[in-house]
Design brief:
Elements lengths: L9 E4 L1 H4 L6 H8 L2 H13 L23 H17 L5 E5 L3 H13 L3 H7 L3 E5 L4 H10 L5 E7 L5 H18 L7 E6 L3 H6 L3 E5 L12 H9 L4 H17 L7 H15 L4 E6 L5 H15 L8 E6 L2 H12 L4 E8 L8 E3 L4 E2 H18 L4 E6 L4 H21 L4 E4 L2 E4 L9 H12 L1 H13 L3
Parallel strand pairs: 2-3, 2-4, 4-5, 5-6, 7-8, 7-9, 9-12
Antiparallel strand pairs: 1-12, 10-11, 13-14
Length: about 475
């Protein structure tokens, strides 16, 4: 297993992934020495040496990993927030219009950390509304809830063409304009591609640029997500420190016990391709970590499931709740799961004693439950591995998410996704693209072009319920 070293806020243990299905070290070592993987590791060493004087470190798509050490973007985010607060001194509501990678990174950090006392002091009770659905009643309730004068509306879309994001932003911007008049745009921020700056400034919106080479699901450490985090009180300096620390380990380490991403990628690839483990379940021992599981699911499926022979599905299970719901199937159903259990071992609040007579705490009880689940699965030949967090904090989340991003790139190479046909051309780093996502968008835009016909269909369906 990867060694725990000074500064590590996470620790991973794969013994329950290997013993139940008789994984041999030789099998993992063979993967480590795969020529495709070795080529990538050499490239990442070169890419992550680039500095801020070299096009802000983003010369190609792989260099998105450099965002973990981009102090310049942190300075931009903080400077922009100071500018916003000069005209909007009291922010009470943050409405984030963005989907997929433009929302999940921010939400993972916000929901993970918003309840601890330090963050509550920083965000002063700001309410967060990520617009992940265009459901009419959901949007109407948010509009009824917010005070336009105290609402910051963010639009996050690198292309500035994502229909769902643009629609949500237009609705909230129109609401602010109706209530605030011509100065409404001081409450709006366009976080879009750097080449789209004029579109933002012409509308009078604040602007924060996204690097054109960036793949959205890899932008947790950059502008698409950082401003939202900072507005909600997340310590983005600590988040970046964690990401940079882990990036260094995952780029410089050349062995399974020195490189957490390499260990994770080798085990997932081996168990998926030779042991039939096709469902990757993130079992998180805190409701605050559910959005991390959602972020991880998009990262894996959108990056890697590009061919019919790649069978990878993701799932997030909140534990202990879902142990009662799913353990029967995990233990006695089809043996297709590889579980990652994520357990925060430390607490921010005072330890609660559950049984004063014995001194048993809540953490004692939940850790015993975790061991019960993992051991029962292992005894039944069902593999799992564990990521232990020092506690739920920005540094630990930064380390875990940076590890997962490097792991995903490594898996992309192992599955042979470097070269991919997109738009009739061969594109490098196919695992940083997502051509399949465009299919529904094309149909969606076609339907909206025939708006009258679409509205007739809706009316007909509604009439069936009258």
């Amino acid at each position: 297993m990867a060694r725990k070293e000074p500064g590590d806020q996470i620790f991973q243990d794969f013994k329950n992934a290997q013993r139940p299905v008789d994984v041999k070290v030789e099998e993992l070592e063979k993967i480590v020495h795969d020529t495709r993987l070795q080529k990538l590791m050499g490239e990442l060493k070169d890419v992550t040496k680039w500095g801020p004087d070299e096009n802000y470190m983003y010369k190609n798509m792989q260099a998105v990993l450099n965002s973990t050490k981009d102090t310049g973007i942190i300075d931009q985010v903080k400077g922009l927030m100071d500018n916003i607060k000069s005209s909007m001194p009291q922010i009470k509501y943050v409405v984030q219009c963005g989907i997929g990678g433009s929302e999940l990174g921010a939400s993972a950090l916000i929901y993970a950390t918003m309840h601890n006392s330090q963050n509550q002091r920083r965000n002063k009770g700001i309410e967060y509304f990520p617009i992940t659905s265009l459901n009419n009643d959901h949007i109407a309730r948010i509009i009824a809830r917010i005070d336009p004068a105290k609402t910051l509306v963010l639009k996050a879309t690198r292309s500035n063409t994502t229909m769902e994001t643009l629609t949500a932003f237009d609705v909230f911007a129109a609401h602010l304009k109706e209530r605030l008049g011509d100065g409404y745009n001081e409450n709006c921020v366009a976080i879009i591609g750097k080449d789209k700056e004029k579109e933002a400034t012409d509308a009078g919106y604040h602007f924060l640029g996204i690097e054109p080479q960036m793949s959205g699901r890899f932008t947790a450490f950059h502008s698409a997500n950082l401003l939202t985090m900072y507005a909600m009180g997340v310590d983005i300096d600590r988040f970046h420190e964690g990401g940079e620390h882990m990036l260094k380990k995952c780029v410089e380490g050349s062995t399974l016990d020195s490189n957490p991403a390499l260990e994770q990628a080798a085990n997932i690839y081996l168990l998926n391709t030779t042991r039939g483990k096709m469902v990757l379940n993130a079992g998180v021992f805190s409701p605050d970590l559910v959005k991390y599981g959602d972020w991880l699911g998009q990262l894996i499926e959108e990056s890697l499931v590009h061919r019919k022979d790649i069978a990878l599905l993701t799932k997030t299970s909140e534990l202990s709740n879902k142990a009662h719901s799913y353990m029967q199937g995990w233990l006695e159903g089809a043996n297709v799961y590889l579980h990652q259990f994520v357990f925060p071992i430390g607490n921010h609040e005072k330890e609660i004693i559950a049984d004063k007579q014995t001194g048993r705490t809540l953490t004692d009880t939940e850790f015993a439950e975790y061991k019960g689940i993992a051991t029962s699965l292992a005894n039944a030949g069902r593999p799992s591995y564990t990521t232990i967090l020092s506690s739920i904090n920005e540094n630990a989340l930064g380390q875990m998410m940076a590890r997962d991003m490097v792991t995903t790139m490594m898996l992309g190479e192992l599955y042979g996704l470097r070269k991919e046909f997109i738009g009739g051309k061969v594109t490098d780093f196919g695992y940083l693209n997502q051509p399949g996502v465009e299919a529904y968008k094309i149909v969606m835009k076609g339907e909206l072009k025939s708006l009258g016909n679409l509205q007739e269909q809706i009316a007909d369906v509604r009439a069936g319920f009258e």
